Amino acid sequence: MGVSRWTVCLGHVLDAEGGYVDHPADPGGATNMGITHKTLARWRNISPWWELEKSEVRALGRSEAAAIYKALYWDRCKAGSLPAGLDLAVFDYAVNSGPDRAVRTLQALVGVTQDGFVGPITLGEIARRDTRALVEALCDQRMGFLQKLSGWASFGRGWSSRVARIREAALAAIPLQSTTQPIKGADDMSFLDGRKTYFVAGLMLIVGLAQSFGIAIDAFGDYSGPQLIMEAFAIIFLRKGIKTDLGRA
Q1: What is this structure's pTM?
Q2: Mean of the pLDDT values across residues 100-122?
């Protein structure tokens, strides 16, 4: 069995982040393996964050850092549902500049509502696009954002090098025989034409409401109740084609 995409992408991120640093010009303050002082405190439920000693940041282990990256960045961006290559580009962008910004940038590129959540509509539009073109555009957008930051003078060279390496690794991960990758567990989007679109939207709405009231239903994977409700209304009013994980129901 080969190495998982999560493991591969985490390796790239950890290589880019390095070890413990506490640069005075870095707004993140004390950081280890890319995990900031504030993030580690939040992860450990310590409030206010400065109650966590800097020595704890320095002593952070790889296993805990990996758990933080998995929960707060990889899973938050639904990177495991993205095509190979795009998963790394989005994940590293999220680590560097925040999951919300990374996801909204991706959503802008595929022409869907920029709500900061990767749901069925976003995944469906990604599946329609050329993965290489998406990686290139996402990295270009990321560079444009970084160049506007006040820290560019101090960290610009390092940021540029990082994005270039991630771009190269992401493009290399895309299979040559196919520029677009289907979303796992999804069928052809034509099955959602016409009435079936509204049927699926109604089902999503019912499941979303049920989950909002604490009734666990696994039909749509790990999407939360509010996310499903929002996606359902978007489908009803916009009639967007989607792909879902119905096969896991």
Answers
A1: 0.72
A2: 96
